[in-house]
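Table S2 (continued). Query chain:
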Amino acid sequence: MKPAKVKCYGDAAALTVEESVNSGNSLTINLELARIIDGTGPTNHYDWANKVIFQLSSSDLYMFAGLLLGYIPSFRIEKKGEKWIEFERQRRGSDGKGYGSLYIKGCAKGGKLCTLPAPPGKVAELSQLVLGRIEKRTECSPELLIASIKGGCALLT
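Corresponding output:
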């Protein structure tokens, strides 16, 4: 059976969020960020051969879940060198039009900036994937899971 994954596409970059297992055999999530290489045709083409991969630590996994659930406004992961990815919750415009999104930006190979928005529907899909992964990892009830994430994130605000 293939691991579950969610893909988000933008005009400048794409993000894949996928179930994985770390070197300690714990269930986690991988984030894969790729820049666009050709956006001139009817479909965009992304540089998946030179993607940047982030495997979330246990702490990162819980904080990412907290961001997706709206308990913290932003979350950044930095790895060795110039490798980083940042997520920021954005509300709809002050004019009340449009909708909010999860704004994603990160540094791709070669120091190139990648940016893309994830609309509310994608944020819901990401939340289900991440919470499902944590639930399998911890074998605790959904209520306890949500409460523990909320409590951990409260320490950051």
